[in-house]
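Predict structure. Chain length: 190.
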Amino acid sequence: MKQTQVSYRIPDAITHQPYQASFKTTLKALPSAESHIHTLRDGEVVLYKRERSRVSQCKYKYKFFTGALVRVSTRKTNRDYAAQVVCDLYDEARYRERMGLTPVQKTFAEIARITVEELQRDLAAGTGKKIYVDYCQIINKYFVPFFGERHLHNIRHDNIAKFERWRNDKMQHKRKSSTLMNFARAFNRV
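Prediction complete.
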């Protein structure tokens, strides 16, 4: 068994000031034929490698009472670094659940893809509006390339101001008020 020192920062629930915490975790191999599967946090978190991948993957429960699982890549090849990432993800999910927030954060691109699928489904069913075609184009051509990997809850006013400057440079012609309203409505759909 191997012990790893892990430290992380989470905000205190009362003062909302971050505090430093550290703990020791033990990587234990599961009794399995594959020696690259490890459990952390008393079996709550599983760290493993897929056959065709060099990076470690993990899975843990994010709705701790219902048992819904999250599977995510750690993007680390070193097992110790992967264990740190996994523990941080697990701790953040536990904290977010205690605070009543969504434990899993989605990127803008993931939510935009779901929105475009809904709009296209409405169009195919005949219940959608003609403007949905424009919304899909705006989302795919402008919003996803700019906001793509940002988490939706991290988009602030200054990001939108930067987006508007970027969009104006990309469009290279004067925008009509109806076009700007379509952008605003498409953003609201996402």
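Summary: The first helix runs from residue 79 to 98.
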